[in-house]
Amino acid sequence: MPSYRNQLMSPEDIARSLDRIALQIVERNHGVDNLAIVGIHTGGVYLADRIRTIIEEREGQKVDSGTLDITLYRDDWSLVAQNPIVKTTDISFAVGEQNLILVDDVIFTGRTIRAAMDAIMDFGRPLSMQLAVLVDRGGRELPIQPDYAGLELSVLDNEHVHVLLRESSAAGEVVDEVVLESRS
Fold it and tell me: Which of 175, 143, 137 is nearest to 156 (CA)?
């Protein structure tokens, strides 16, 4: 049972952050030519889809997108589960011709992103790889930093950041929020 639960981002905060991230991606990449967005399962897939939609609506141009499962690329997968649940990777475009934006919900140690970079390289070498996250909670173990972040904060060891998105909510529970909980 958590000792406390604080809302860090409301639905409006999340929407504003994704709008800002989408705009920054387009600005940094001088438009959407050769741009592709790949979401890391699970939360990153939903956020990547939202960012792609925002960019396509603003720019009036389709953006390549895909999903990435990094389960078997993790350096700690044998510690996570004896029988890991492998999700779908769907990258149907030529990675080598793209400025690729990896999207995840939260960055912590950097190990998920390192695994994602390894997985992407199996599809080819992109022109560039950039990282967008909704929350940067600090605590890096690897020298990996996001290029775009909706919220940056320092989180204690006994605290956990939960990104709750409407796409993964139970029926009837439409939720978009980021919460910080302490673990007793």
Answer: 137
